[in-house]
Design goal:
This protein has 691 residues and is of the alpha+beta class. Helices cover 22% and strands 28% of the residues. Helix 9 (561-576) packs antiparallel against helix 11. The chain is globular. The chain crosses the membrane at residues 385-407. Residues 437-691 form the Protein kinase domain.
Length: 691
C-alpha cells in the first residue's frame, strides 16, 4: 500500500513539474511552444527587447505578413518576412502555428497552409520556436539548445544582420542570398539579388539572376579588394569568410552599443545602415552604399532616363508616362514607361517603337550614351531598319578611321618624347610589362590598385599603378589622369603617362627613391626627419582604407575635395605617427580627440605629437596643422579648403578660424554632447597673417 502511494506521489510530482515547465514556456514572450499559435496583434519579443515578431502590414498596404522587425524604432524596420509571396488579409483569422512534428507554418483565413519552415523534429511535442536577441528565429529541441532544426538566418530576405550569413549551404546545395523587396509596400522578391559569386569569394549584385552589375572584388582574408571599407568601418566587428563541411559563408559581428545592418534596397543598391546607443533618437543613419543609382541595370525600365542628381532619378521620355503610376509612387520604376498617345498608323500595319543604344568609352568623354529611335511597320519597317543599320555602320567605320589616325599621331609623339616637356605618354601594355619585369617588384597596395617598380629604356625609374577592377576603378583612373596629370610641382610626384588597353588601366608615375611616406612614418626605430622643402616621397593615398572621403562610400559625386579629405587624414598621421585605423592607448580615436580640443578652442598639447620627435616642434605650427587637418575632413565638401589655401595656412601666410566638430566622427567621441548637435553650414575663412 505504501509502495503504491509512493508511486502515485512520484507520478503527481512529475506531472506537476511538467505542467510548471509548460506554463513557464508558454509565458515566455520570446517563445512559441509546440502546439501553440500566434495571431492578431500578439507578438513575440526577443529577450533583450531588440526584435519583435508578428503580423505586420507595410505602408498603406492592406496585406499582412509574418515578419521580424526592430521593436523600438520610430519607423518599423522589417528585417525578415516569411510569406513574401502569399500575404493574408485578416491576421485575426490567420495563425502562425508550431505543429507537434516541429514544423512552423502560417495558416490563412481558410486554414490553408501558405508558408512553412518544412522542418521535422526527431520526436513529436519536443520543440519550440524562439526569437533570439540577434533577430534569428530558431526552431530547436525544447531540452537541447544545440539541436537546431531550422533557423531564419538560413533563409534571409532583403537584410543581412550581424551573426547572419551570405554564402552557400553545401549539404542542401542551396545559395544563402538576399533579394530586394518589389517596392515599399510589397515584400515579394524583386529582380535584384546579393549573393556570393560561384566558386569565388566575392559578393556580387545580380539582375534577374543572370546579369552581374557590381562586385566587391575577391576576399583577401582581411578585406575585399574593391571595397575594403566594408571590413574596416566602425560599426562592423570580425567581418570574415568561413568555409567548412556544412557551408561557406561571409558573416560579421556587432560592435557593442551599436546596431547595424546590410541590405539590398528596392533600388537594387547594396547598403549599410547604422545606429549608436547615444544617438538622439531611434532612427537609422546611412553609412555605406554601392553602386551609384544609374549603374543599376534597368532600374528605370523601358523608355525612360536615369539622372541620379535629381529626385526621383527616373523620368519618362518626352511623350511617355509611367506604365504603372502606383508602382512609380512607391519607388518601383522597373515596369518603365508607355506612350501617352497611341500611334495611328493603320495604313502601314502594326507599329512598334524601337531603340538602338550606343555607349561611348572615350577616356576624356566618359558616360556618353546615344539613342537612335524609329518606328517600324510592315515591310517598310524592314527597309528602314537596314537603312538605319547601314548609316550607323558607316558612322562607326568613320569613327574607327579617325581613331586610328589619332592613335598613330600619339605613337609618333611618344617616339619623340624626351621626358623634359612634361607631356603625358600613352604607354603600350607590353612595354610596361617589360619595364616592370612582368610586375615582379611590388611597392605597395591600396584600395584601388597595386604599385610596381619599373625602369624605362633610358634607365629612369618609374612606379606603375595597376587598377584592380575596371568597374570600380574607372572613376579613380579618370580622376587621377585629369588631376595629377596637370600638376607639376617640385614637392609632388609627377605622372608620366598612362595605359588604356581593353580592360586594363595603368598609371605611370616617376619613382621616388626616398620611398613612401608610410615607410617613413610607421617604420619601427625610424629617426628620419622629413624636410618637406628638400625631399619628395610617394604619397598615393586616394582609395586606401582610413583615407576615404564620405562621398566615396555614399556614392555621391567625386571632386577634388575628396583628395583634400584624404590629405587631412594623412596630416593626422604625420602629426601623431599613428595609423588612422589605430586607437590610442586609452581607447581614444586620435582625429576625434584633436577635433574635440580644437572645436572647443583649447590649446593643442604637445602630447599629441609623434613620440619619435621627442617634443621637438613649434606649438603654434602644431596647432595650425591640427586646425587644417580638422577643416580638411569636414563632412560637407563645401566646408573643406582648397589645397592652395592649405599650403598658405601651413606656411603661415594666412590664418584660419576654429573648425566645427566633423559629424562623421561623432560615433568616436566619448563626450555625448556631439551626439545631439545639428550642424549648420560653416564658411571656411582666413585672415592675413602678420607673422
Amino acid at each position: 500500500m505504501k509502495l503504491e502511494r509512493k508511486k502515485t506521489s512520484l507520478y503527481l510530482l512529475a506531472l506537476h513539474l511538467a505542467l510548471v515547465f509548460e506554463t513557464i514556456t508558454c509565458q515566455r514572450p520570446d517563445v512559441i511552444a509546440s502546439g501553440q499559435t500566434l495571431s492578431g496583434n500578439h507578438t513575440l519579443s526577443s529577450k533583450d527587447g531588440t526584435f519583435e515578431l508578428g503580423f505586420f502590414t507595410p505602408g498603406k498596404s492592406r496585406n499582412y505578413y509574418i515578419g521580424i522587425w526592430y521593436k523600438n524604432f520610430v519607423d518599423k524596420t522589417v528585417v525578415w518576412v516569411a510569406n513574401r509571396n502569399h500575404p493574408v488579409t485578416n491576421p485575426y483569422d490567420s495563425e502562425l502555428k508550431l505543429f507537434p512534428d516541429g514544423n512552423l507554418a502560417l495558416l490563412n483565413e481558410s486554414k490553408i497552409r501558405i508558408w512553412s519552415s518544412n522542418s521535422t523534429a526527431r520526436k513529436d511535442n519536443a520543440t519550440l520556436a524562439i526569437l533570439l536577441n540577434n533577430g534569428n528565429l530558431l526552431i530547436r529541441d525544447d531540452q537541447d539548445i544545440s539541436d537546431i532544426i531550422w533557423q531564419s538566418f538560413d533563409y534571409p530576405t532583403d537584410t543581412w544582420l550581424p551573426g547572419g550569413k551570405i554564402g552557400y549551404n553545401k549539404r542542401k546545395k542551396e545559395k544563402i542570398y538576399l533579394t530586394s523587396w518589389r517596392n515599399a509596400e510589397d515584400p515579394a522578391p524583386s529582380v535584384f539579388s546579393l549573393e556570393v559569386e560561384t566558386n569565388e569569394t566575392s559578393l556580387v549584385l545580380v539582375y534577374n539572376k543572370t546579369k552581374q552589375y557590381f562586385t566587391t572584388g575577391s576576399w583577401t582574408g582581411r578585406y575585399f579588394v574593391s571595397v575594403p571599407e566594408i571590413q574596416s568601418n566602425p560599426y562592423v566587428l570580425n567581418f570574415g569568410y568561413i568555409s567548412d563541411v556544412n557551408e561557406s559563408k561571409f558573416t560579421y559581428d556587432l560592435i557593442p552599443k551599436t546596431l547595424t545592418r546590410f541590405m539590398i534596397d528596392v533600388t537594387g543598391q547594396f547598403r549599410q545602415f547604422a545606429w549608436r546607443e547615444n544617438y538622439p533618437e531611434h532612427r537609422w543613419g546611412g553609412n555605406w552604399l554601392r553602386p551609384e543609382q544609374c549603374e543599376v541595370p534597368r532600374f528605370c525600365g523601358a523608355f525612360s532616363t536615369c539622372n541620379q542628381l535629381k529626385a526621383p532619378s527616373c523620368n519618362c521620355l518626352q511623350g511617355y508616362e509611367p506604365k504603372l503610376a502606383e508602382s512609380w509612387a512607391l519607388g518601383d520604376y522597373t515596369d518603365g514607361c508607355t506612350r501617352i498617345s497611341p500611334l495611328h498608323c493603320s495604313d502601314v500595319g502594326e507599329v512598334e517603337d524601337t531603340f538602338f543604344f550606343s555607349e561611348g568609352n572615350a577616356i576624356f568623354n566618359p558616360g556618353y550614351r546615344g539613342f537612335t529611335f524609329f518606328r517600324q511597320s510592315g515591310k517598310t519597317s524592314k527597309m528602314r531598319v537596314w537603312i538605319v543599320i547601314g548609316a550607323v555602320g558607316v558612322l562607326f567605320v568613320l569613327l574607327g578611321i579617325v581613331t586610328l589616325v589619332i592613335l598613330q599621331l600619339m605613337k609618333r609623339k611618344v617616339g619623340r618624347y624626351n621626358g623634359e616637356a612634361g607631356d603625358l605618354i600613352l604607354f603600350k601594355y607590353k612595354d610596361i610589362k617589360k619595364a616592370t619585369k612582368e610586375f615582379s617588384e611590388k611597392l605597395g597596395e591600396g584600395g584601388f590598385g597595386s604599385v610596381f617598380k619599373g625602369t624605362l629604356p633610358d634607365s629612369r625609374g618609374i612606379a606603375v599603378k595597376v587598377l584592380k577592377n575596371l568597374r570600380q576603378g574607372e572613376k579613380q583612373f579618370r580622376a587621377e589622369v585629369s588631376t595629377i596629370g596637370q600638376i607639376q610641382h617640385i614637392n609632388l610626384v609627377r605622372l608620366k603617362g598612362f595605359c588604356i588597353e581593353d580592360d586594363k588601366r595603368l598609371l605611370v608615375l616617376e619613382y621616388m627613391k626616398n620611398g613612401s611616406l608610410e615607410h617613413h612614418l610607421f617604420r619601427e626605430n625610424s629617426n628620419v626627419s622629413l624636410d618637406w622643402k628638400a625631399s619628395r616621397v610617394l604619397t598615393t593615398i586616394r582609395g586606401t582604407r582610413g583615407y576615404l572621403a564620405p562621398e566615396w562610400i555614399s556614392g555621391e559625386a567625386i571632386t577634388a575635395k575628396a583628395d583634400v579629405f584624404s590629405y587631412g587624414k594623412l596630416l593626422f598621421e604625420i602629426i601623431s605617427g599613428r595609423r588612422n585605423m589605430e586607437l590610442l592607448d586609452d581607447g581614444d580615436y586620435f582625429p576625434a580627440l584633436v577635433a574635440d580640443k580644437i572645436s572647443k578652442g583649447e590649446e593643442v598639447l604637445m602630447q599629441f605629437l609623434d613620440q619619435k620627435l621627442k617634443g621637438k616642434a613649434n606649438s603654434i605650427e602644431l596647432t595650425r596643422a591640427c586646425k587644417v587637418a580638422c577643416w580638411c575632413i569636414q563632412d560637407d565638401e563645401k566646408n573643406r579648403p582648397t589645397m592652395g589655401l592649405v599650403i598658405q595656412i601651413l606656411e603661415g601666410i594666412s590664418e584660419v578660424g576654429i573648425p566645427p566638430f566633423p559629424w562623421f566622427l561623432r560615433g568616436f567621441a566619448k563626450d555625448n554632447e556631439y551626439q545631439s548637435i545639428v550642424h549648420e553650414p560653416y564658411t571656411f575663412y582666413t585672415t592675413s597673417s602678420n607673422n
